[in-house]
């Protein structure tokens, strides 16, 4: 079940855009600006994206106009943010009232289940062992803060469905995580896919729905809870799925791009000679002691999270050494600037961007310029230092005009 219908004789390039909220959007904007300037962006055949990277990628693959129009739209979106528009959506549309109603009903449902469990514990009746309702509500969270965000995204993407993505732009794979199967869930213009369930029809799925699922950070936003019909091995089955931030499974968006994925099981994006992986995270820092439970859990999560991303980055090096890919490019927001062989004189230093949050609040123009400029500079510096196989010749990066901030 390949996403790509044909295999080009030209070198195939895949682009992965990591998560990281608005920070990722701004950083990736700069990376795309540099790739556009060098002609590499037009050679990209597939974009795989997560969370904030999915917002940017979906804009690139859906908005009309040229790259300058796309950049103006992204800057407008970043300046406005999504928090304010989401509040307006909650207050001015039925979605806010629905979300509150569902939250109350679910709370009452779970309160009743807790009371029944307590009674059964006192009476020592074995009924509780057989009742699934006592462990999990039969109610679906049909409205929540995430559906409010989805409705906000719907305005941004003009209500377009996935098959309406631009045909002259790369194939887009939006990555989410399915919590029941504990597996990746992929949205594409042709199908939805989870290896545990099979494939589902994407014709009536909005771009906004895919982006909201990919960007619903679990500590702040509930998972999208819905039923879908999947086909696997010629058998159609209705499944209940709960979709959350794709970064939970793969924050770099590299999973669908690895070589030798089994088409009988996995969604296969194609075979790629070159991979560009844009990572909008920071290098690990030594933090205060995790003395309390929440701090310990947060530190433990970040440790596992960082380890998974570092393993994915290491795999790029392993694949190149093994000859499985010809080359890769790894623009990394947390790049150690001392390791750049050919940095520009006016490089936006790593320590000047460290600490910007990963939420979707409005971003000041100063930070849009700073984060995007660093992404642009890193791509040019890495191309000048390493080249990119046979796709682009080594050359000195163009002089970038300094911007305030």
TrEMBL record:
InterPro entries: Acyl_Trfase/lysoPLipase (IPR016035), NTE (IPR050301), PNPLA_dom (IPR002641). GO terms for molecular function: hydrolase activity. Keywords: Hydrolase, Lipid degradation, Lipid metabolism, Plasmid. The keyword Lipid metabolism applies. A motif (DGA/G) lies at residues 245-247. It comes from the Bacteria. This is PNPLA domain-containing protein. GO terms for biological process: lipid catabolic process. Residues 16-258 form the PNPLA domain. The active site is at residues 51, 245. The keyword Cytoplasm does not apply.
